[in-house]
Write a structure and sequence with these properties.
The chain is of the alpha/beta class and about 325 residues long. The protein contains ten helices and nine strands. About 15% of the residues have low confidence.
Length: about 325
């Protein structure tokens, strides 16, 4: 939610259910953020012509991780690794992020991305997962739960962005402007990108420091013009999507946990996590003291605890 922020109305498009999964099994070592070394399988699924990259490890009740904007699978590593010992854990690069493609035609709205994820999971025969969404990814998890109410076991949202926002600047919205946006994006992003990334990461991790190896790994990735445009497009579609779906959040009946920080400088805790908890009174709200936006990095155990809680509740529901 925090490097790009242009907002304009856009319409959703439908995604066909045809899914082709191509597997590129590569065993990799996790080294993007501070965590124990382990191995996972890296794969791609082609859904309606869009290649989605994901990583998968472990067996048991499936847990699916959805990162924010910008982000990638590496944002979940501190949570992914411990859970893999007792769950089947899957983390996706959202369309246009990491190693995933963005749809070539139409707009990748929140609901379109939810359908792409749903169709990929169906092809992988992943049934009733617990969805875990961070920031922008929380909106996707909520929209998924509203759209496919019988196909989720529970939801955990972390530092959630769930309602309309009007933050941002002209510069961060510029890459979405046709023609002018493209030119400015390819000229300006490599010049100003690194300083913007450093500043926004400092805000996102505050009051904790930014992990040095994470900063180094994202500087080159997030300042690519194609990536910057994808981030801006995601922000462009965010407001119309949550405006459409937030009135339906009350329809969610599966167990929900909301984890947020009281010092989040990116997403307002009261206007998002607090408001969501009011709409879903049976949800659990966990407000972490002296904690910012990047909870998957700074408080991974708190996220794990809520995933396990939702897991227990979902089993009790049958």
């Amino acid at each position: 939610m925090w490097l790009c922020a242009g907002f304009q109305s856009q319409s959703a498009r439908s995604v066909s259910n045809g899914v082709n999964v191509s597997i590129e099994r590569r065993i990799q070592t996790l080294a993007a953020s501070p965590q124990p070394s382990t191995s996972y399988a890296s794969r791609t699924a082609t859904v309606s012509g869009t290649r989605l990259h994901y990583i998968i490890q472990g067996t048991g009740r499936p847990v699916v991780f959805i990162h924010g904007n910008p982000g990638s699978t590496q944002d979940w590593m501190s949570v992914f690794t411990p859970l893999a010992s007792r769950h089947k854990v899957i983390a996706f690069d959202r369309p246009g992020h990491g190693r995933s493609q963005r749809p070539k035609h139409g707009e990748a709205t929140v609901e379109v991305q939810a359908q792409l994820l749903h169709d990929a999971l169906a092809q992988l025969r992943v049934e009733r997962p617990i969805l875990v969404g961070h920031s922008w990814g929380a909106a996707l998890a909520l929209v998924y739960a509203v759209t496919y109410p019988n196909e989720v076991a529970g939801v955990v949202v972390v530092a959630p962005a769930a309602f309309e926002s009007h933050d941002g600047s002209f510069l961060t919205g510029l890459p979405t402007v046709p023609v002018i946006g493209d030119a400015a994006n390819y000229v300006l992003t490599p010049l100003i990108g690194p300083s913007v990334v450093r500043g926004e990461l400092k805000k996102a991790f505050s009051p904790d420091p930014v992990p040095k190896n994470y900063l180094q790994s994202v500087l080159s990735e997030w300042t690519k013009p194609s990536k910057a445009r994808a981030y801006a497009l995601d922000e462009d579609v965010y407001n119309p999507s949550v405006k459409k779906f937030s009135p339906r959040y009350a329809e969610i009946v599966v167990p929900v946990s909301i984890v947020t920080g009281d010092s989040d400088l990116i997403v307002s805790e009261k206007e998002n996590a607090g408001r969501l908890h009011e709409i879903l009174p049976k949800s659990r709200l966990v407000v972490l003291p002296k904690t910012g936006h990047q909870i998957p990095f700074t408080h991974p155990q708190s996220v794990i605890d809520e995933i396990e809680r939702v897991q227990r509740l979902s089993r009790a529901r049958g």
